[in-house]
Amino acid sequence: MDIVLQQVGYLYAKDSPFEKRALEEVNATIPSGSYTAIIGHTGSGKSTLLLHLNGLLKPSEGSVRVGPTVITSDTKGKSLKDVRKHVGIVFQFPEHQLFEETVEKDIMFGPLNFDIPEEEARSRAHELIKLLGLPPDVAQKSPFDLSGGQMRRVAIAGVLAFNPSVLILDEPTAGLDPRGRKEIMELFHRLHVEENLTTILVTHSMEDAARYADQVLVMHDGRSVLSGTPEEVFGQAEELASYRLGVPRSVQFQRDFEKLTGTQLGRLALTEEQLAKEMAVVLKEAGGRR
Ligand code: ADP
User: Fold this and answer.
1) pLDDT tens for residues 242-260?
2) For residue 43, how far is its CA from the centre of ligand 1 (angstroms)?
3) What whole-number percentage of the chain has pLDDT above 90?
4) How do residues 149-167 score in pLDDT, each as one tens digit?
5) 214 alpha carbon – ligand 1 mean position (Å)
6) Distance between CA 98 and CA 117 in Å, rounded?
7) How far apart are CA 230 and CA 251, in angstroms?
8) 260 vs 138, 255, 264, 284, CA distance in Å?
9) Centroid of ligand 1 to alpha carbon of 46 (angstroms)
10) Does residue 175 have a pLDDT over 90?
11) Do 10 and 25 contact (CB within 8 A), yes or no?
């Protein structure tokens, strides 16, 4: 399900004294099956953009096409509901929205509301418990008796229970420890690959954007100012700095190393593993010349 934004503009509290422009002339294409990272400083418009991708906000200007559905400022309820069925959104700290007595009931809540038969909703809940790496006995436990990382997985299962074809993640690892962060990011990557889920990640982590995404979109002052593959975007350190954004640690290390030694690595090292490989090539060549 491709998503195409054309000249999207959005004004909060439009036509009131508090009117505030949050998006301006945003153009972007998110191809079906892709993994897109959206980066940008606080206040650059990332959350506002996300809310347009699943029909929670309608553009004040321009259009958002999600699969066959086109949303403009005139679009009415039914189309927005269709979009919400296909596009799941995991908000920051999603575990704050858990409320049922058991994990199973919590995961089933959304599908039951969408008139999915109870047995189907239950079997999907059990599949998801397994898919998300939770022990089977959590089904009958209270979500509030679980660890923070497990609660977050249950909340994510609640979003996946709708079988979305697009999954939007707004800072999904906020507040987790480094190990929990890595596990959750690996989980989303696995879902992206195995379930062919179109994935859209808003993150402050340049490392996660570089490691997992195949396209990066940079927001600044409500505009989409730069986009491309991680190599293309993170190869432009000076431009990113002008938007108050950095590059992944491995890329910064590579830049410092290249400057200090006067050597060039073969390609941009988006991850520590790539950096080690590229440095090994250069060091072996240098050893061979000795
Ligand atoms: P980000 O997610 O990148 O931090 P946001 O999309 O939250 O950016 O915000 C974009 C701009 O819109 C900011 O200037 C912000 O202050 C403003 N904004 C966000 N939400 C509201 C709102 N509900 N009412 C008025 N202005 C808002």
Assistant:
1) 999 999 999 999 999 999 9
2) 5
3) 78
4) 899 999 999 999 988 999 9
5) 26
6) 21
7) 11
8) 53, 9, 11, 18
9) 8
10) no
11) no
What would the two tokens of residue 135 be? 């022990």
Q: What structural domains does the chain harbor?
A: 3-247 (3.40.50.300), 248-290 (no CATH)
The verdict on the CB of residue 16 being under 6 Å from ligand 1 is no
Residue nearest to atom 18 of ligand 1 (CA): 22
Percentage of the chain beyond pLDDT 70 is: 99
Cα–ligand 1 centroid distance for 88 (angstroms): 21
pTM: 0.93
* Residue from 14, 47, 202 to probe ligand 1 pocket by mutation (most atoms less than 8 Å from CB): 47
Residue located nearest, by CA, to atom 25 of ligand 1 = 12
CA 45 to ligand 1 centroid distance, Å: 6
Question: In the predicted model, what is the mean pLDDT of residues 214-237?
Answer: 98
Strands 69-71 and 20-30 turn out to be unpaired
Q: Is the CB of 45 under 6 A from ligand 1?
A: yes
Residue 205 identity? S
d(CA 104, CA 210): 35
Rg (Cα) of the chain, in Å, rounded?
21
In short, whether 58's Cβ falls inside 6 Å of ligand 1 is no
Q: Where are the alpha helices (DSSP H) in the chain?
A: 46-53, 77-86, 103-113, 118-131, 148-160, 178-194, 206-212, 230-234, 237-242, 249-261, 272-289
CA 76 to centroid of ligand 1, rounded, Å: 24
